[in-house]
Amino acid sequence: MSAERCPLCDKRLGERRCPALDALICSTCCGTHRQKSIACPSGCSYLIAAERRRRERKARELEQAWREFEEALARRGMEDLLPYMEVLKYALAQLLHHHPAQDADVAAALRHLARRLSPIELVEPYLPKLGELLEQGLLPLVREGKLHPQGLREACEGLAAFLEHFSHEEPDRFVTALLGTYPPEEPDRSGIILRP
Fold this sequence. Notes:
Layout (H helix, E strand, L loop, with lengths): L15 E3 L4 E3 L1 H7 L11 H31 L6 H15 L6 H14 L12 H15 L5 H19 L5 H9 L15
Antiparallel strand pairs: 1-2
Helix pairs in contact: 2-7, 3-5, 3-6, 3-7, 4-5, 4-6
């Protein structure tokens, strides 16, 4: 059986089975056209591996930027906001695993929660879905006295400002980094043990 050329570039040999095109394509074209001109199915192993690597890379970028941000907060005497920001980052990551969003959506959610924590009650013309979910998860902790409303409000504003600075021109840089920092939790595997 002779090797097939990649149908996209017609230069290199096709070595990857593309489920969207039902053809063998080269790795270069797979990377170049993935989710751009090829409608990749979500279960494609190449898509999953590429997204995992991208999340890991962005998580490292976030880790570096976050260290610098922590140092800046410490210089300004605002390090007491960091535990609140960690709670926010973790809560957002858990929501983002089930409710995909862009960085702008996350910033809007944080600003929504900050307004809800304000002592001045404002009528909002628009309720961001992610903001509503974040509010449902964190406001009970405020009511129970586990989170101080003023600290959480300032942390929301600070994290939104950090996010906008970190995002640059990538609409999902923060979201991707957050998902890489907090990967989905494995389901509890206790119970039935299957043996071959």
